[in-house]
Amino acid sequence: MKQVKFSVRSATSVAVAILCLGASATAFAQVEAKVTGRVHFDARNFNSSYNTIADRDTASLGDSFEVRRARIGIAGKINKDISYEIVGNAVGGTTNFVDTAWGNYGFNKNAQVRVGRFKQPFSLEEQSSSNNVSFMERSYGNQMVPGKRLGAMVHGEPMTGLTYGVSIYQDGFNELTNQSSIGNKQAARFTLNLAQMNDIKDTVLHIGAGYTGGESSVVPVNSGNTSSAADTKTRATIVALRSENRGQSNVYRAQIGGDTLRPATTTSTSTLSGTTVTTTSTTAGGLGYNQSANNAITINQKLRGVEFAGARGPFKFQMETFNSKYDAIGTAQTLATSVTAVHAMGVQVKTDYMEFMYNITGESFAEAYKGGNFGGIKPKTNFMTDYGGVVGNGTGAWQVGYRTSKYSADLPVTASTCTATGSCATDVTSGASAIGSRVQNSETARTNTYALNWVLNSNARIMFNYAETKFGHNIVLLDSNSTVANTPTGGTTDKERVISVRSQFNF
Known about the structure:
By secondary structure, the protein is mainly beta.
């Protein structure tokens, strides 16, 4: 990693100009900058009992090559005490190019202030960079954590082995409603390394706890189903899970009903001279796929996490538990009849994981631990010692690992209260309801993942993962399964297997 220092004091022309003005060159800032980047290139093979369907909604099941991450950015310091990072993301689901963009005021190391878009303080697994995590993909619990969001944070390490972070943030780059408060969500994380506090060498005894929660808004849309007519009911996803190792999307999904859209055609009947006449008219704009509702749904999430890690020499054990509760409420309208209702839904999801890692080549995990997180392993010998070296001059670092991870979702409660003329149902069971809310696929699953990692050097790694998932009951392909004689055309499955390989480069 090459670091370049820019200083106006070293620029002769600027110095002469300053001297001419009688000013001091030391009044100008000293800026450090370094280019950073990463590329993660994956290959994946998927196996399940599903039938093959040529439908875009089943793309998560396809064998594929994938550029999982491609990021480029600049990081550095201004006058030593102010640090910054700006990173762009060339791939991903968001149309916004910004991955992170933050500035950090570090004048007081015990109480630093960070503003911008950055990782919110929650979860040991999330705080570990994607360049350094032990497995190619993080666990089920990570799918519920805030990750990188816009906000402000106070953080620091006031004493050896103790870290904290407290933040306020928002979901998304822009708010969806006219709510009058800023930073509607909060996060906090506290960690202790008991080994570091007691000066126990080559050891990590890490414990931590975190909380995040608050309100965010989402706009319901109608179904993206491509095998039947578009649904007039709109829905907002409260929580959805993808099986680990980039397996099937929506192995569990809970959605609250929103507005009911106008149908593409309206049929009316009338009697003329004793003859019944049927008239069909087309609604302006027509009903299509992925149409948005007029009203937003507010989701209040409360997520708690507990983390533990123990490391001694080349061995590491790590575990976390997550308990997330979602309460959603919003106004919903039947646009064709102007009937208005208040829809509500509550659901709770619990997840946990345990992982074991061993460095076959003897590298110490304690050396990679700093500030409440694990960084990257530095091989004792690089596979290539220098740019002109001979391949095979060193072994690099070799790791083996195992992780077991699971989730379980409680039966959600849905309700609807009418505020205008019309009939609105109340439903306290799972599945589809008269107000459009629903839960789908399996409420429980467990995934066992096996890993073999080869760290060639500090900037290159090759990873091999095999993951096997067992669902609590058979699941189907959502949003693409038309049925023939009540049998899903895509079939059903209660398990899946995913083999994946990653070539990773970072600088």
